[in-house]
Design a protein that fits this description.
Keywords: Signal. This protein is α/β, with parallel strands linked by helices. The protein is built from nine helices and nine strands.
Length: 248
């Protein structure tokens, strides 16, 4: 759906010079839990999203599941995917959180069939090195080294559960759009919009803290998947239709 929003943005700008304009603006809302899609000068068409807008939907997950079936889909179950971001000015951590994460993972690995770990571009080298040192030789663990095709979509489509560091609103938003169990580590270290974001996810039963006491094989819960992108796109389309504009 992200590409639909981008198309609508271009469409609005293209016709702005010829007709009364509609500006669809994506921004961070400082006094709310997350970002806002705020059409210019029209407060009636304001969409406050829980998380970040992204490209994950049922169609993209189905395509990824098919594309990654042989590489990921045949791994022993349950598959636990671990996404590690990096510290920010509002969510600070370092080697201490890496130690906590690896220790907790070592505790839950016996309850997993497979574990796949990915780092982001923001992951500090010392954090990545420590994770590789402590878990890299475990027979159940695969750590993507950044080479070859990025397995991120395959992970989202085929994982049975996720562990994600609290710093990344994008990674958490994507994982919560799958409807699968999501564990968060480091949320207590976050400030500003991150605090409200994590509270919102917990209140909707989308996430739980990662403690290292989980039984990944047995622990399951359900929730309504996060669907911000579709809802935001629908709001923009409705705003266009209210002005007599239609997308072909």
């Amino acid at each position: 759906m992200w590409y639909m929003l981008f198309f609508i943005f271009l469409f609005c700008n293209r016709i702005a010079a010829k007709r009364r304009s509609l500006l669809a603006k994506l921004q961070v809302c400082k006094d709310h839990v997350s970002g806002a899609l705020c059409p210019h000068k029209n407060k009636k068409v304001q969409v406050l999203t829980i998380g970040a807008l992204h490209q994950i939907d049922c169609s993209s997950l189905q395509s990824a599941a098919s594309a990654w079936h042989e590489g990921i889909g045949l791994l022993p179950k349950p598959l636990l995917v671990v996404n590690i971001g990096g510290p920010t000015s509002h969510c600070k951590y370092g080697e201490d959180l890496a130690n906590e994460l690896t220790s907790s993972l070592q505790n839950v690995i016996p309850t997993c069939g497979s574990v796949r770990i990915s780092f982001s571009r923001r992951t500090p080298k010392m954090v990545a090195d420590l994770v590789v040192l402590k878990l890299g030789n475990h027979p159940k663990v695969y750590i993507w080294n950044g080479e070859g095709p990025n397995p991120h979509m395959g992970h989202l489509a085929l994982a049975d559960a996720f562990v994600i560091t609290a710093d990344s609103i994008s990674m958490l938003s994507e994982a919560c759009s799958t409807g699968k169990p999501v564990y968060v580590i480091g949320a207590e270290r976050c400030r500003w919009k991150f605090t409200d974001f994590h509270k919102s996810l917990r209140e909707r039963c989308m996430v739980r803290p990662f403690t290292g006491k989980e039984n990944i094989c047995k622990e399951r819960w359900t929730y309504s998947p996060l669907n911000d992108t579709k809802e935001a796109a629908g709001a923009v389309i409705s705003a266009l239709e209210d002005r007599g504009w239609r997308l072909q």
